[in-house]
Amino acid sequence: MNALFAPAGTPPDIIAKLNQTVREVVALPDIKRRLLELGIEAQAGPPEEIAGRLKAEIAKWTKVIDDAKIPKL
Fold first, then answer.
1. Is 36's pLDDT higher than 80?
2. Which residues fall within 8 angstroms of residue 14, CB to CB, at 6 or more apart?
3. Rounded to whole angstroms, how far apart are CA atoms 27 and 44?
4. pTM across the whole model
5. What is the pLDDT of residues 19-29, one digit of tens each?
6. Which alpha helices (H) appear in the chain, and where do they start and end?
7. Is the dihedral of CA 1, 62, 6, 10 positive or negative?
């Protein structure tokens, strides 16, 4: 999973503009084709979606680490 992040505290209108611009760029045929050539299936979505996916991934891998008794540094 890849994502584009902005600094904490970035105003919501700036986040919305960045999100819209990324959606437009990812939809461009040349960009879409090049990303696929690189093995990237880009999907632009709302910030809340990636936040939910990240929380789920963190929970999943925290459990894996804990279950495997991997020491935390």
1. yes
2. 6
3. 9
4. 0.68
5. 999 999 999 99
6. 12-27, 29-37, 47-67
7. positive
